[in-house]
Fold this sequence. Notes:
Blueprint: H1 2-24, E1 25-27, H2 32-35, E2 41-47, H3 52-70, E3 75-81, H4 86-91, E4 99-104, E5 107-110, H5 117-128, E6 133-135, H6 138-147, E7 151-155, H7 160-172, E8 178-181, E9 197-202, E10 205-208, H8 211-214, H9 217-224, E11 229-232, H10 234-239, E12 246-251, H11 258-273, H12 275-278, E13 282-287, H13 291-297, E14 305-310, E15 315-317, H14 326-338, E16 344-345, H15 349-370, H16 372-405, H17 409-418
Parallel strand pairs: 1-3, 2-3, 6-8, 7-8, 11-13, 12-13
Antiparallel strand pairs: 2-4, 4-5, 7-9, 9-10, 12-14, 14-15, 15-16
Helix pairs in contact: 15-16
The structure holds 2-acetamido-2-deoxy-beta-D-glucopyranose (NAG) (2 copies).
Amino acid sequence: MSDKRNTFLLSALLLWSALSVSAFVEELDDSFLETKQPDDIWLIKFYAPWCSFCKQLDPVWHQIGSDLRSLGSPVRVGKSDASVYTALSKEFRVRTYPAILMLKKEVKYNYPGPRTKDDIMDFANRIAGPLVRSLSTPQLFLHAMSLHDVMIVYVGATSELKGNFTSVAEELIIHAYFFSASRDVLPKAVSLPFLPAVVIFKDGTFVTYNEEQDGDLKSWINRERFPNFFHLDSYTLYAMGESGKLVMLALVKRYMCDESLRYKNLVEKVAAEHKDTYSRDFCFGYMEDTDFITGLLMTEATVPSFIVVNLTNDGYFLPAASIETERHLLDFLNGVLNGSVESQGGNGVVQRVKRFVYDVKTTVIPLFTDAPLLGCILFSFPTCIVLFLVYLCCLARKEAAGEDDDDDDDGALQRRKNQ
Ligand SMILES: *[C@@H]1O[C@H](CO)[C@@H](O)[C@H](O)[C@H]1NC(C)=O
Ligand SMILES: *[C@@H]1O[C@H](CO)[C@@H](O)[C@H](O)[C@H]1NC(C)=O
């Protein structure tokens, strides 16, 4: 008897938890376009039923929904099947799956980062908050400094520059936080020759924007918003394309062995000690996730190794000889700058053909091994249509030929034989 009651309680509990879990994430359909409220802030995942990365994201998405709810966040979490609700996915310009984006005050923000809970939550909180966060006291300023490796700060009163700063923030907030402060909030040691100013604090120091030398504000922020040396992932590396700088990387093993550590330390040392010489042309970092580099090289990347990447043209540079000392690494960097180290890859015609073949090989073959049935359907369907069309053409030609045959001797012969 009590067993039965326990079973009943348990299933009620399970049902309740299933309902409450799903309630954290709302399933959105095309009617969302009419029903959404202007003040709502949404974090939405667009998925397709056949997409395996989307499935992997499901538990993360539920967790994000539940965490944002329990933190009292104003962000509502939704998901939408883009293969069914096409009006919605079209409105949001969804092209790849899963697509993660936020909607706030009719502005859409595409999420550009790794698909982990912490990164997505950080993005959601960043977009949900003010576009430019005001740091009103020295304590708040120091606290923010302790949380962020790089801080982009507007200093001064309202001005035209502030307007420009705010519009840049609107575009780049998907990548970084933007702050504003008055002069007396900054530490005394920060000397600014003029106000208003835009200042980026990083690497234990700061750089100040100067319109005459630095060009437009957005390009300058895009160049300067990365630390001099840091741990990169594929998404950040891709985003660094906008900086226009070359990226010097140590590719290392995830659980760094001595050899990997040596590569990483060498790059870090050169980045720190020769910053003035190279920071105009180079960013420095180390990477454990080599997917992006493997795609660029179109072959498995050697780990550990050194590589310089030109993200503007998908080109890369590899050292000709092994790099043992700081001198070797500096020679390599100079060789890249003066053209004596040859650029490989790139986006020329030959390279594009190679890339096309490589992409087909890497996307089609896994499709067959991961989901043979789906692969067969996807490929046999167009093939069948093509074969059918060929068949129709042949049939039509044969019939046309048959009509002509009526008059000639061969046709007559054939008919006679048949009789
Ligand atoms: C603000 O941006 C406009 C257009 O990009 C530019 O012409 C102007 O000089 C900028 N103002 C300041 C103060 O940077
Ligand atoms: C990187 O690519 C850009 C665009 O093609 C090119 O102008 C630049 O010279 C390249 N940098 C190097 C060091 O090859």
